[in-house]
């Protein structure tokens, strides 16, 4: 079932089949992870090495100032890690008075970065090799340089055009006054030095030591609120997972403050529809998925925030089977509809997946949010800072309203599938609001329709935008586009690489007889590899 390959889509890749696999959005990062596995490291060690390498070789999507989340199977149990950072203590609603929305770039979009804390926490609890060893490939790429790949080079140029005036950006990422072009070599000695400090202190330098002091000093110089105390107060949370079932498979996501709950809600809604009666690319199947996502996203926008602040409507309320069944009843199988938030209770990103021969599987995602994040780079460190603060709202009374020490709503989500208490698939789909939608599409393609992981990654995607608007890739059949339009969907056709609106998928599926099938997305410079 899980190796069936339907060669009906544009890519002709086959899944990588091996006992140890690494699937990422960048070949050099994949090699970094595989080298750690070859040295006797486990899947967690390889995931950390890969994540660190990605901050160097794919700076357009992540950096040392990113946030991160992970779901991992340790061979016996599933674990969830939330390493997103909180708002600075100075971020009261009054600080942003007079604005219609949160700043999208610059210092006032920077919350405490959590990715480094994720690496350290994962290594301490599950790692096999010394932490410093894991960062060696990243340090080498930063010191000696790497050749910029085509997709990343294109995104780099766009980022430089938009962010050249942000503090520290040009100095770090525009050598000679421009972005490096595909095929050119880029090195970042300042980032190499920061990685060494992180390696030597197991991440403490970033939150309490020399790097923390430089971050805080640069923030103070620009009148930003982020302080040394904010950095020192950060700690990642072993938060567990939340899940919902579809045909015996359980999709696990990180609890809010992320959007993973929307994927669970949509899948739970589809459980109560006739989607099993259709093939994967049938118009009726696509329509049902779009309507389920629309319902889930309306509730996501209305109710989801830092879990500690969801006091009126809880994640449990949103995932109630009776509520999801009632939401499914709101779908018109023949027409697209506008949907409102329900009443469940009265009242730029990189993703990687790694699995090893001992059975450990890791689903890991880290991100700057927008390409290069805030655009702010701390001089002399190579530390580019995310813009996750843009995920807050300024709407009074909303659970996601900005507040000191509060985590913002997050788009990045790792996914993990279980069946009968055993691990099935570690996977993720990058791309802002595409991520929850992509999770639903990947689960259905691999579990309901039996497509192998590479076929599922290759398949053309759609993305709910807002209202009745739905974006579809150019590879979607013209007859399907017309039929969806006839049903009332307002179809926008986009190229697959249009601002990465359809994301990039990486999937690792456990095989019944042992070993794994790994797939990577042709929309990016992705590569799955193994041995």
| Major beta-sheet overview | 7 strands, antiparallel
Give the distance, in angstroms, between the N- and C-terminal Cα atoms: 22 Å
Mean pLDDT: 93
Number of helices: 18
Residues in helices, as a percent range: 25-40%
- Regions with pLDDT < 50 over 5+ consecutive residues? none
Shape: globular
Radius of gyration based on Cα positions:
22 Å
The assigned structural class equals alpha+beta
Proportion of strand residues: 15-25%
Brief account:
With 531 residues, the protein is of the alpha+beta class. 34% of the residues lie in helices and 18% in strands.
Helix-strand layout with pairing:
Blueprint: E1 16-18, E2 21-24, H1 27-38, H2 43-57, E3 67-73, E4 78-83, H3 115-126, H4 131-134, H5 136-144, E5 146-147, H6 150-163, H7 169-173, E6 185-186, H8 189-201, H9 204-207, H10 210-221, H11 228-233, E7 237-238, E8 242-246, E9 249-253, H12 260-270, H13 283-303, H14 315-318, H15 321-328, E10 349-355, E11 361-367, E12 377-378, E13 383-384, E14 415-419, E15 422-429, H16 434-448, H17 453-458, E16 462-466, E17 469-473, H18 478-486, E18 490-494, E19 505-510, E20 516-520, E21 527-530
Parallel strand pairs: 17-18
Antiparallel strand pairs: 1-20, 2-10, 2-21, 3-4, 3-11, 4-7, 5-6, 8-9, 9-14, 10-11, 12-13, 14-15, 15-19, 16-17, 19-20
Give a structural overview.
- The chain is α+β, with helices and mostly antiparallel strands and 531 residues long.
- It contains 18 helices and 21 strands.
- The chain has helices spanning 27-38, 43-57, 115-126, 131-134, 136-144, 150-163, 169-173, 189-201, 204-207, 210-221, 228-233, 260-270, 283-303, 315-318, 321-328, 434-448, 453-458, 478-486; strands spanning 16-18, 21-24, 67-73, 78-83, 146-147, 185-186, 237-238, 242-246, 249-253, 349-355, 361-367, 377-378, 383-384, 415-419, 422-429, 462-466, 469-473, 490-494, 505-510, 516-520, 527-530.
- Helix 1 (27-38) runs antiparallel to helix 2 (43-57).
- The protein is globular.
